[in-house]
Design brief:
The complex is a heterodimer of chains A (490) and B (273). By secondary structure, chain A is α+β, with helices and mostly antiparallel strands. Among the domains of chain A are: 108 residues, Dipeptide-binding Protein, domain 1 (Alpha-Beta Complex), CATH 3.90.76; 202 residues, Dipeptide-binding Protein, Domain 3 (Dipeptide-binding Protein, domain 3), CATH 3.10.105.10. Chain A has 13 helices and 19 strands. In chain A, strands 11, 12, 13, 14, 15, 16 and 17 form a seven-stranded mixed beta sheet that branches. In chain A, a hairpin with a 2-residue loop joins β6 and β7. In chain A, α7 packs antiparallel against α9. By secondary structure, chain B is mainly α. Chain B has one domain: MetI-like fold (Orthogonal Bundle), CATH 1.10.3720. Chain B is 73% helix and 0% strand. Chain B starts with 5 loop residues before the first helix and ends with a helix. The chains are: A alpha+beta (490), B mainly alpha (273). The interface between A and B is medium-sized, with 23 and 19 residues.
Chain lengths: 490, 273
C-alpha cells in the first residue's frame, strides 16, 4: 500500500514539475489581422503590431515611453550644420536567413524607401535624405538636403526598418529581419507564430515562442481572454468589459496612451463639406464627452486638434469647437444647408461603430441626417482611404506626430491648404526646438480654426493581460507589441 | 360553435401583444427611440424606463416596440414575397405534373433549398450592401421553394379528384382550374405554412441583424440589440434578456398559432378529431 502511494506521489511530482517551471510562450490577441508582414509597403498598423522590434529593427528604435534609442545603429555623429548623420552600426548582426547585416543593407533600405516607385506608406520620413553612402562595412553616412530635427525619430518608425536585399521580395509573407524573434508561420485568418532568434545580437528575450492571434469580434475576444486562450490583449476591443477584468485577480488591466487621434473625417471634395461653416457646425454639434463615455466607457481624452495630449507641444483647443448645438444650427442656416444628408462610413473598431451611432444622433439633433454604412477594413481602405468615396468617416490615426497629413492634398480627406503646407515645410527645415514648438502650435491652431475635420478624442490604450505577465508596453508611442522585454513572473 | 384549441388562443394572444406593440410604436413610444442620453445609460428596469436603458441611454421598451415593427415588417414582406413567387410556381408545376416544366421548377427549388439561407444572405449583402431590404430579399428567396412545394403537394392530390375532372370536362383550362378550384382548396394549407414561415422569418431577420447584415443602425432591431448586449452581459443582463425574450415569445406565439390553425383548418386532422 505504502509502495503504491510512493509511486503515486512520484508520478504526481513528475506531472507537477513542468507546471512549476516558468512559461516561455505567449499568445497575444489582436483585433486586426495584418494584410501582409512587410511594414515598408503597407500602412496598416497591424503589420507593425506584429513585426515592430520583434522581427524587424531600424537604425533607431522607440522605447515604451516614445524615446528614441539606439537600434541597429550603436551610435551616431551629427555634423555641425545638422545635415550629415554618420551611423556606427552594430557588429556581428545577422538577418534570420543567416546573411550578415552590413552598411549595404542600410543603403539599400533607405534608397528603396525614398525611390520614386517606393511603396512605402510614409515616404515623407525619408524626404529630407539627399544621399546615403556606405563608408565601410559598419558605417553609414546619410546626407540630408537640409537639417531635420526629427530625423532620428523618423528612423525609428516601423516604416524605416532595415531589410536585406536578399529577402526583401518575400517579406510580405515570409518576413526576414534582424530582430529577437523570427517568423515561423502565418495561418491566414487565425494567427502568426514567432520563435526566439537564437543568434540575436542583443539580450535574448525571455519568451521562446510568441503567437499573435487575430480576434476581431469583441465578444469572442472577451471569451478568449476569460478562457485563457489568449494571454494578453494589448488593445482590447470591448472597453465595457474592463471593469470586469479589473475585478478579477487573474488579470491586469493596462490603460495607457496611444498616438491615435480619433477624428470624424470629412471629405473636402463634398460640396457642402467644403464650406467651413458646415464643418464648424458639425464640430459644434458633437459632444465629445458623450462619445468617450458612450462608445469607450470613459477611456479617452478629448482633443480639439490633431495632436497627442501627452505631447509637451500639445495645445488644448477643445473650446474652439465646444458642444453648442444652437451655434451649429445657426451656422447651417447661414450656409443654407438646413436639410443636409451625408453618408457616414464606419470601419469595424468599437470607437467607429458605437461612436458613429452617437454622432449620427448628435448630428440629427442639429438637422443633419446621416446614412450609416458599416464596412469591413478591406472595403474601408479601398473605398474611403484610397478611393476617397465618402462624406464622413470615423478613424483613429495611430501614427506618431502625423499632423503632416493635413499638408497632403492627396490624402483621403483631400484638404488642400497652401498655408498649412507652408507651415509643415518650414517645420521640416527647422531643428531649433523652440521654433519647432512654435510651428507645431501654429499648425495645430490652423487646422482647428479651419475645422478641417471634427476632432474627437485621443484613443486610450486599453489592454488586458494575465496578471503574471510583465514587460508589456503600457503606452503605444507607435503601433507595436514589442515582446523583447516580456516575461512570465510565475 | 366549437371550442377553439388552447394553442391557437395562447399563440394568437402572444402574437397580438407584439403586433399591437408594433402598431402602437408607429404613433407613440414611451421615449424617443433614437434619443440617446449617455448620462442615464445601462439603467436597470425601473419606473421611468420599464425595461431599462441600453449603453447609449436609449429606452429599451421603445426599442423593443420599434424592433417588433422591424421584425414584423421584414417577415411579412418576405413571406409575402415567398408566397407571391412560390404559389404560382407550385400551381404551374402541379398543372404540368410529370412534365418538363414541373421538373424544371421542382429541381430549381431543390437547388435553392440546397444553399444554406445565411450563406446566400451574406452573398446578397456582400454584393448589394447590408440593409433591411436586402434581408427581406434574402429571406423571401428562401420562402419561395417552401411555398412552391406546399402548393404543388396540395394541388397534386386535388388534381386527381372527380370535381376537378368535371371542371376539365366542362372545358376549363388548367390555368382557370388552378385559380378557381385548386387555390381556394389549398388556402388553409398556405395559411398554416405562412404562419410557420412568418415565425421563421422573424428568426431569420434576428439572425441576419445579429451578424450585422439586417436592418442598419439607427433602426432598432432585436437581433442587433442582442449582438450589442453580448459584451455587457455581466454588467447589464437585461440588455440581452429582454430582446432575447421578445424573440422567443414572438416565435413561440406564432408557432402555437400555426399549430392551432392547423388543428382547425387541416381537413385530415379535423376528421381525426
Amino acid at each position: 500500500m505504502l509502495g503504491r502511494l510512493k509511486i503515486g506521489l512520484a508520478v504526481l511530482a513528475m506531472v507537477a514539475t513542468p507546471a512549476l517551471a516558468q512559461r516561455t510562450d505567449i499568445s497575444v490577441g489582436m483585433v486586426l489581422e495584418p494584410p501582409n508582414l512587410d511594414p515598408t509597403s503597407g500602412a496598416a498598423a497591424a503589420i507593425r503590431e506584429v513585426t515592430y522590434s520583434n522581427i524587424y529593427e531600424g537604425l533607431t528604435r522607440f522605447g515604451p515611453d516614445g524615446s528614441v534609442n539606439p537600434g541597429l545603429a550603436e551610435s551616431w555623429d551629427i555634423s555641425e550644420d545638422g545635415t550629415v548623420y554618420t551611423f556606427h552600426l552594430r557588429d556581428g548582426v545577422e538577418f534570420h536567413d543567416g546573411t550578415a547585416f552590413t552598411a549595404d543593407d542600410v543603403v539599400f533600405t533607405l534608397d528603396r524607401a525614398r525611390d520614386e516607385d517606393s511603396t512605402n506608406a510614409q515616404k515623407q520620413l525619408f524626404a529630407a535624405i539627399d544621399s546615403v553612402r556606405a563608408v565601410d562595412e559598419h558605417t553609414v553616412e546619410v546626407t540630408l538636403s537640409q537639417p531635420q530635427g526629427a530625423f532620428l525619430f523618423n528612423m525609428a518608425w516601423g516604416d524605416a526598418v532595415i531589410m536585406s536585399p536578399e529577402s526583401v521580395e518575400d517579406n510580405a509573407t515570409n518576413p526576414v529581419g534582424t530582430g529577437a524573434f523570427r517568423f515561423v508561420r502565418w495561418v491566414q485568418g487565425d494567427r502568426v507564430e514567432l520563435e526566439r532568434n537564437p543568434d540575436y545580437w542583443g539580450e535574448a528575450p525571455a519568451l521562446e515562442r510568441a503567437t499573435f492571434r487575430f480576434i476581431s469580434d469583441p465578444s469572442a475576444a472577451f471569451a478568449a481572454m476569460m478562457a485563457g486562450d489568449v494571454d494578453a490583449f494589448p488593445n482590447f476591443p470591448a472597453p465595457e468589459t474592463l471593469e470586469q477584468f479589473e475585478a478579477d485577480p487573474r488579470f491586469e488591466v493596462i490603460v495607457g496612451s496611444t498616438e491615435g487621434e480619433t477624428i470624424l473625417s470629412m471629405n473636402h471634395e463634398n460640396e457642402a463639406l467644403s464650406d467651413i461653416r458646415v464643418r464648424q457646425a458639425i464640430s459644434h454639434a458633437i459632444n465629445r464627452q458623450d462619445i468617450i463615455d458612450g462608445a469607450m466607457f470613459g477611456y479617452g481624452t478629448p482633443i480639439g486638434t490633431h495632436f497627442a495630449p501627452h505631447n509637451p507641444d500639445y495645445l488644448d483647443l477643445t473650446d474652439n469647437s465646444a458642444y453648442d448645438p444652437e451655434a451649429a444650427r445657426e451656422l447651417l442656416a447661414e450656409a443654407g444647408h438646413e436639410d443636409l444628408t451625408l453618408r457616414l462610413m464606419l470601419p469595424p473598431p468599437t470607437y467607429a461603430r458605437r461612436g458613429g451611432e452617437i454622432i449620427a444622433a448628435q448630428l440629427r439633433d442639429v438637422g443633419i441626417e446621416t446614412e450609416i454604412t458599416n464596412m469591413e477594413w478591406a472595403q474601408w481602405l479601398e473605398q474611403v482611404f484610397s478611393g476617397a468615396d465618402f462624406d464622413l468617416t470615423i478613424v483613429s490615426h495611430t501614427e506618431p506626430m502625423d499632423i503632416g497629413i493635413y499638408a497632403r492634398p492627396d490624402y483621403y480627406f483631400q484638404y488642400d491648404s497652401a498655408e498649412m503646407q507652408e507651415i509643415m515645410e518650414e517645420l521640416d527645415m527647422t531643428s531649433d526646438p523652440e521654433a519647432r514648438t512654435e510651428l507645431l502650435h501654429e499648425a495645430q491652431r490652423h487646422i482647428a480654426d479651419d475645422s478641417v475635420v471634427a476632432f474627437l478624442f485621443q484613443l486610450a490604450k486599453t489592454g488586458v493581460a494575465n496578471a503574471d505577465i510583465e514587460g508589456l508596453w503600457e503606452n503605444a508611442p507607435v503601433p507595436a507589441n514589442d515582446l523583447t522585454g516580456v516575461r512570465w513572473t510565475e | 360553435m366549437k371550442r377553439l384549441p388552447m394553442t391557437l388562443v395562447a399563440g394568437a394572444l402572444l402574437t397580438a401583444v407584439f403586433a399591437v406593440a408594433a402598431l402602437v410604436s408607429l404613433a407613440w413610444t414611451p421615449h424617443a427611440v433614437e434619443g440617446m442620453n449617455i448620462a442615464t445609460r445601462l439603467q436597470p428596469p425601473g419606473a421611468d424606463h420599464w425595461f431599462g436603458t441600453d449603453h447609449f441611454g436609449r429606452d429599451i421598451l421603445s426599442m423593443i416596440m420599434v424592433g417588433a415593427r422591424t421584425s414584423i415588417a421584414v417577415a411579412v414582406i418576405a413571406v409575402g414575397m415567398g408566397m407571391v413567387l412560390g404559389v404560382p410556381l407550385g400551381l404551374l408545376a402541379a398543372a404540368n405534373r410529370g412534365g418538363l416544366i414541373d421538373e424544371v421548377i421542382m429541381r430549381g427549388n431543390d437547388l435553392v433549398f440546397a444553399f444554406p439561407a445565411l450563406v446566400i444572405a451574406i452573398l446578397i449583402t456582400a454584393v448589394f450592401g447590408p440593409s433591411a431590404v436586402n434581408a427581406i430579399i434574402a429571406i423571401g428567396i428562401f420562402n419561395t421553394p417552401v411555398f412552391a412545394r406546399v402548393t404543388r403537394g396540395g394541388a397534386l392530390s386535388l388534381w386527381t379528384l372527380d370535381y376537378i375532372r368535371a371542371a376539365r370536362v366542362a372545358g376549363k383550362g388548367a390555368g382557370r382550374i388552378s385559380i378557381e378550384h385548386i387555390l381556394p382548396n389549398i388556402a388553409n394549407l398556405l395559411i398554416v405554412q405562412g404562419t410557420i414561415q412568418f415565425s421563421l422569418g422573424i428568426l431569420a431577420e434576428a439572425a441576419l441583424s445579429y451578424v450585422g447584415l439586417g436592418a442598419q443602425p439607427p433602426t432598432p432591431s432585436w437581433g442587433r440589440m442582442l449582438a450589442e448586449a453580448q459584451t455587457m452581459i455581466a454588467m447589464a443582463p437585461h440588455l440581452a434578456i429582454i430582446p432575447g425574450l421578445a424573440i422567443v415569445l414572438t416565435v413561440l406565439g406564432l408557432n402555437l398559432m400555426g399549430d392551432g390553425l392547423r388543428d382547425i383548418l387541416d381537413p385530415k386532422l379535423r376528421r381525426a378529431r
